[in-house]
């Protein structure tokens, strides 16, 4: 299927984008703890599967977990099987799939525009430096893995459109593993471009095309069912109903519950696609592409990107990371537009990055009063200064060379995220690092005590504490009943204000997100509940 090493200028740009990704992954490992509640929950699910020796049915806090399929959990466990159970491997899974996505993006550009050398390399640099792609390429989350399978499917779509039937097999593979990664949403990410193939690839035989596409969907479903059927049998009736119907139905209801307006994504685009979205030169290039007429590749990218964006906009259950699989389409279209213009100047994104650098310096010097009460420690001054210098160097480099705009802006995008993380690490890490609490819970359990969590429990402590026993999840009136019946046991209770934990005698207490978490004996927990009215 010709998934070869990219050639020519594309190879150098791909290597540069992979180097930037490696830098970002290293900085994330050094500066960011597993973030509750999502990252800690997912790695804990994998940990419980590992403990049970059950690689078929995911578990969370001792109960079957039907909200996500198991592919990412399998990837975590594969690394543990090779390297032993550790904390660094699960945080490398997304960067590795991101690297694969960069490679597939370059190859996809070479399929779409073989006559435009260097387009794939530009696309890789653009993709690797988009803010939202950076964040989720260095997180223990599903979205970059899903984007990888969408890219595999898009290669299949193009191969099939060229008349080679094996392209449909590749689409089926992408659908099957996409479902195993994040569920049927892969169909929404992948099928619009395939369904619209007669628009971007005129001359297709409609009957053969849609027949092959239907067969690919069925084969993809068969791949997913090869896990789902035995998992449903092993997990029991409730789990079986959840994975085959309950979760899908519930999410459809929730998604159309009008929680967020249709325009919710629009004001976030400049941030998610920084620095590229705020670059006037890119919009000028896109305008030129439209005026000169859209070629097959440009239409393909629009068919991939726009219907899915509109669909997600009308589904009111919105999250920024739902759009991650669309970012390769944006990068490809942007790279194609920039192929036909001399590299414009990057003044506005450089100015915005410099302004962020100044804000970081003001925060570090204590001049932002609201920040002083929200963080554990003020950030250092040097990352802000370094960001101002990086913005100036990027602006200067782009002015000196007509072809330096894209590399300079890519470096600036990566520098912005890298330096922001370095600046924020000692300020934010104590609010999100739950490992100390997890280790304290482990010690209490080792002494023979049960531990309850007096709130919805997202398993945030299970992996980081290597806990082998579930926590008792208590909410409402049942908390007081349990505490009275277990006077010698312990509970984790959450406070809205960090200052409230100062006078509490606890086995462990720490800042937690916007407030605090304390591990206290049952009598103390009952008193705290009574003090705040239950």
Describe the structure using short key phrases.
mainly alpha, two-stranded antiparallel sheet, 5-stranded mixed sheet, 3 domains, globular, 7 strands, 64% helix, 534 residues
Describe the fold and architecture.
By secondary structure, the chain is mainly α. It folds into three domains: 13-338, no CATH class; 347-402 and 412-432; 435-531, no CATH class. Helices cover 64% and strands 5% of the residues. The chain is built from 23 helices and seven strands. The strands form two sheets. It has a five-stranded mixed β-sheet. It is globular, with a radius of gyration of 25 Å. The N and C termini lie far apart (63 Å).
Structural classification: mainly alpha
Rg, please?
25 Å
Oligomer: single chain
Shape assignment: globular
Estimate the strand proportion: 5-15%
Q: SSE order, as H and E?
A: HHEEHHHHHHHHHHHHHHHHHHHEEHEEEH
- Spatial order of strands in the largest sheet: 4-3-5-7-6
Distance between the termini: 63 Å
Q: How many strands appear in the DSSP assignment? A: 7
| Number of domains as seen in the coordinates | 3
Task: Report the biggest beta sheet as strand number plus sense, adding barrel if it closes.
Answer: 5 strands, mixed
Poorly predicted residue ranges:
none
Q: How many helices?
A: 23
Residue-averaged pLDDT, rounded?
91
Helix content: 55-70%
